[in-house]
UniProtKB/TrEMBL annotation:
Topology of the protein relative to the lipid bilayer: Multi-pass membrane protein
Family per record: Belongs to the mitochondrial carrier (TC 2.A.29) family.
Protein name: Solute carrier family 25 member 3
Gene that encodes the chain: Slc25a3
Biological role: Inorganic ion transporter that transports phosphate or copper ions across the mitochondrial inner membrane into the matrix compartment. Mediates proton-coupled symport of phosphate ions necessary for mitochondrial oxidative phosphorylation of ADP to ATP. Transports copper ions probably in the form of anionic copper(I) complexes to maintain mitochondrial matrix copper pool and to supply copper for cytochrome C oxidase complex assembly. May also play a role in regulation of the mitochondrial permeability transition pore (mPTP).
Keyword field contains Protease: no
GO cellular component: mitochondrial inner membrane
InterPro entries: MCP_dom_sf (IPR023395), MCP_transmembrane (IPR018108), SLC25A3/Pic2/Mir1-like (IPR044677)
Taxonomy, superkingdom: Eukaryota
Amino acid sequence: EYSCEYGSLKFYALCGVGGILSCGLTHTAVVPLDLVKCRMQVDPQKYKSIFNGFSVTVKEDGVRGLAKGWAPTFIGYSMQGLCKFGFYEVFKILYGNMLGEENAYLWRTSLYLAASASAEFFADIALAPMEAAKVRIQTQPGYANTLRQAVPKMFGEEGIWAFYKGVAPLWMR
C-alpha cells in the first residue's frame, strides 16, 4: 500500500530525491533572474533595473550569458535540497523518539521547528561552496565562466575558506 516504510533508508532517500528535484530544478530554472539580481546588487550603475539587466547581459554575453552560473546553482541547491528534505525527516524522527510519543505530539510545532533548523544547518554547509562559486562566476567579469574554472582558481587564491565564507550569512537567513 505504501511505497516504503516510514523512517527506512528508502524513505530518507526518497525525501532526499524530492529535495533535489524541488530545490535543484527550481533554482536552476530561475538562474537568469538570479544572475541579473546579483549583478544589480554588485553594480547598480550598470544594471539599473531587472529589464535593463537582462538587456545589458544579452548585449554583452548573448542569450547564453543568462545561464552563467547554472552548474553551481544546480549542484549546490540539489545538495541543499537533499540535506534539507532528508535531514528534516531524520531529525523529526530522532527528536520525536527523544521526547516520546505523547510529548512529540504535544510539542509537535517546536519539534518540527527544531528538526527544520537542524536540517538547514547542514543543508547550508552543503550549499555554501557552490553558492560561492556561482556568485564569483555571475558577478566578477573575467574571473571565471564555468564551475571548472572557478573552483580551482578560488581554492588556489584563498584555500578552502573561499567556499565557506558565506555559510554564516546563510545560517542567519
